[in-house]
Design a protein that fits this description.
The protein has two domains: 208 residues, Aspartate Aminotransferase, domain 2, CATH 3.40.640; 120 residues, Alpha-Beta Complex (Aspartate Aminotransferase, domain 1). The longest helix is centred in the middle third of the chain and has 37 residues. The protein has a seven-stranded mixed sheet, with helices on both faces. By secondary structure, it is an alpha/beta fold. The protein is built from nine helices and ten strands. The radius of gyration is 20 Å and the shape is globular.
């Protein structure tokens, strides 16, 4: 376990004492948001939280629960239409009684990278802790936890090819947090419970591998992503969702006119292409994506996310483009697949 802790710490540029193991990204986010908020309120520093409308539900729902059930005040800052939160707008929401700001490093649907480098140092000067959900960003985008003044960060091992059921909470030593779980006092007393040793070992190995290969893997993924995006956007009536430049190197998110989202998803699935109409952890959800709603995405179009991974090849990308082009044409010819 301690070797894995050192591997994760080295990959993130932090000390091993700042690395705490959890059961997943959701637990890490909840432990940070609730724990930091509780500790700050108990210390008399205030009870105001700031987050964004495009956060993962692990953050957004935790903050909403604190507001609705625990008496905290909450400000939710909307993104710009390109899926990137404006740093000045976010900082303007911070008040004298703000005890936590939570902004994801990169969005799990649109793949848009958020301006932590602009927000973090300003918040650090004001003495306001910044928490970031870095689940999507680790291994694919720059994360300078200390340089950007980030007090807490959440990771999930399976997002960087580690095992499921293991998460990481990076918690700076000078950021107090009340525990969600009470018991044996493991992980600096912040996360009690018997550690998942095998999973943690896998998490450490995966973190080390991601760190060691990032310099080669990120450019490779970016080339594949651009090849994929070019092919999809060449189809008439297909547009990009999210900023074209501030985005993860493996993510393509498109809007398709004249097609129903679920019908197109099933057509592609039948063709052997795995896509998502929302976030992967919400597959099967009937409700519209809160992220797409927040950016004002048109409701009369199909919205699909496609991602490249460690095993993706150019042949895979080209095959996906052919299947996408054919599926869109067949659906449109049949009326779009709308019910």
């Amino acid at each position: 376990v301690e070797q894995a802790r050192e591997q994760v710490a080295t990959a993130l540029g932090v000390t091993p004492l700042e690395v705490l193991f959890t059961g997943g990204g959701t637990e890490s986010d909840n432990a940070a948001v609730k724990g930091i908020a509780w500790a700050a309120r108990d210390a008399g520093r205030g009870a105001h939280l700031v987050t964004t409308a495009i956060e993962h539900h692990a953050v957004l729902d935790a903050a909403t629960w604190l507001a609705e059930r625990q008496g905290f005040a909450l400000t939710v800052v909307p993104p710009e239409p390109d899926g990137v939160v404006d740093a000045e707008r976010l900082l303007a929401a911070v008040r004298a009684d703000t005890v936590l700001v939570s902004v994801m490093a990169a969005n799990n649907e649109l793949g848009t990278v958020q301006p932590l480098d602009a927000v973090g140092p300003v918040l650090a000067e004001r003495g306001v802790p910044l928490h970031t959900d870095a689940v999507q960003a680790f291994g694919r985008a720059e994360i300078d936890l200390h340089g950007w003044g980030i007090g807490a960060a959440a990771l999930s091992a399976h997002k960087f090819n580690g095992p499921k059921g293991v998460g990481v909470l990076v918690l700076r030593r000078d950021v107090p947090a009340e525990p969600l779980l009470h018991g044996g006092g493991q992980e600096r007393g912040v996360r009690s419970g018997t550690l998942n040793t095998a999973g943690i070992v896998g998490c450490g190995a995966a973190a080390a591998l991601s760190c060691d290969t990032m310099a080669e893997e990120v450019p490779r993924l970016r080339r594949l992503r651009d090849r994929l995006a070019d092919g999809l956007l060449a189809v008439d009536g297909v547009t990009r969702n999210g900023c074209a430049t501030r985005r993860l190197p493996h993510n393509v998110h498109v809007a398709v006119a004249g097609c129903d989202g679920e019908a197109l998803l099933f057509a592609l699935d039948m063709a052997g292409v795995a896509v998502s109409a929302g976030s992967a952890c919400q597959s099967g959800a009937a409700a519209p994506s809160h992220v797409l709603t927040a950016v004002g995405a048109p409701a009369d179009r199909a919205h699909l996310r496609l991602t490249c991974g460690r095993t993706t090849t150019e042949a895979d990308v080209d095959g996906a483009v052919v299947a996408f082009t054919d599926s869109v044409k067949r659906l449109r010819d049949a009326g779009g697949g709308f019910l």
